[in-house]
Write a structure and sequence with these properties.
four-stranded parallel sheet; five-stranded parallel sheet; 2 domains; 22 strands; FAD/NAD(P)-binding domain; alpha/beta; about 25% strand
Length: about 400
């Protein structure tokens, strides 16, 4: 009798886990993907959408179409509760039973963590959806047209997706220089990290000095160990009494995993991130695998201001492929692979240049470390985006990442 495999989420983790599971298991077992968003979005390019350098159509594709071609069912629904003892997920529109589950639901944005934070009920922008990115684009275009102003980007305490703040600060600086307006604007970046380039993983060697030099060369103030107190229409208030006057603020909030995972002993931590062993399986419910942002990864070191551990798209895809392998091993027999021993390879764009970072393992001490700066990496990132979207649309193969 075939097994029922339920995949929650259809971004980098859920999409790739489902596709790999179908290849490994053939047609005997049923695979269903449930996701709240009908579109796959290449989220690393959202800063380019915000800058007006990409249109949403170039980085999005309807996920159900691609999954159906692979023999995978898709349902658009939002999961509100997981009942692991009953092997059941409850959604707003339906109930889904499973024998194995891959949780790749990403994150929930905790804008309520700080007064005035967020684009809907607060006074700051965010950059996690296409709608967010387009709102940022409109606000920046209005500010450029005015001809002067103060710009603040930052990472709130507990935030883990830290790179986009750096990218946006550097890209805005690049655009202002091209428009001959840089002298009319101040740009500040505040971050919960103990130093520039810590990124929640103890930094990447000399990358810290590279970033500090970049801030100095671009006349961007970088405030570290910052704890956000409030965001108002006039500015960004930091604990300790300092206020950054702001005509435009873009702030990364802390994350929840999912409220759907809370309240079940042994399933998730208090923030709703799923607990997992070295094979990405939950210790209490071993038929549940956690992938990507949904996975709880504790920081290796305490910091003065809480900093979360990032999970990039590349890391998430690696986890997805390994979780799929391990489910196939559970079903058909075979040796499992460890899912948590992985590295990271990332390109952070800076408008007129870019930074390449590679590290294995993710947190120090490491076996391998690489960090370089150059315009070539901007073009590499653009080429990778094009290829990855072809992978999503047409099934082009993705090479296994050696990091």
């Amino acid at each position: 009798m075939g097994k029922r495999i339920l995949v929650l989420g259809s971004s980098f983790g859920g999409f790739n886990a489902a596709i790999r599971l179908r290849k490994l298991l053939g047609g005997e077992h049923g695979i269903t993907v449930v996701s709240a968003d009908p579109m796959f979005t290449f989220t690393p390019s959202l800063p380019w959408v915000a800058m007006g350098w990409r249109e949403p159509s170039t980085i999005q594709h309807p996920v159900a179409e691609r999954l159906r071609k692979a023999g995978i069912s898709h349902t658009q629904d939002t999961i509100t509760r997981l009942e692991p003892a009953a092997c059941r997920a409850i959604g707003e529109s339906g109930t889904y039973d499973y024998d194995y589950l891959v949780a790749a639901t990403g994150s929930e944005l905790d804008f309520a963590a700080v007064p005035g934070l967020g684009p809907d009920e607060g006074h700051s922008h965010a950059l996690f959806t296409v709608e967010h990115a387009l709102a940022v684009r409109r606000a920046l275009e209005k500010l450029y047209a005015r001809g002067d102003g103060s710009i603040v980007v930052g990472n709130a305490q507990g935030a883990s997706c830290l790179g986009p703040a750096y990218e946006m600060a550097f890209m805005i600086d690049t655009v202002l220089r091209r428009k001959k307006l840089r002298g009319k604007f101040s740009i500040s970046l505040f971050t919960n990290e103990p130093y520039a380039g810590h990124f929640g993983v103890g930094g990447f060697g000399a990358m810290r000095r590279m970033l500090e030099d970049e801030f100095a060369d671009r006349d961007i103030e970088c405030i570290t160990n910052a704890r956000l107190a409030a965001v108002t229409p006039e500015g960004v208030e930091l604990e300790g009494g300092r206020t950054l006057v702001s005509d435009f603020s873009l702030i990364t909030p802390p994350f929840y995993g999912s409220h759907a995972y809370m309240g079940e002993e042994g399933l998730a931590n208090p923030r709703g991130f799923l607990l997992a062993n070295g094979y990405l399986a939950n210790p209490r419910y071993p038929n549940i695998y956690a992938v990507g942002v949904a996975l709880a990864i504790p920081p290796k070191e305490a910091t003065p201001v809480p900093v979360g551990v990032p999970k990039t798209g590349q890391m998430t895809e690696t986890m997805a492929l390994r979780a799929a392998h391990n489910i196939a091993a559970d079903i058909g027999g075979g040796e499992k692979v460890r899912g948590g021993d992985f590295g990271v390879l990332c390109i952070a764009d800076a408008g007129n240049t870019a930074f390449l970072v590679g590290a294995s393992p993710l947190q120090p001490p490491r076996n391998r470390l690489a960090h370089k700066k150059g315009k070539i990496f901007h073009y590499m990132k653009a080429a990778f985006e094009i290829y990855y979207m072809a992978h999503v649309r047409y099934g082009l193969p993705m090479p296994e990442n050696s990091w």
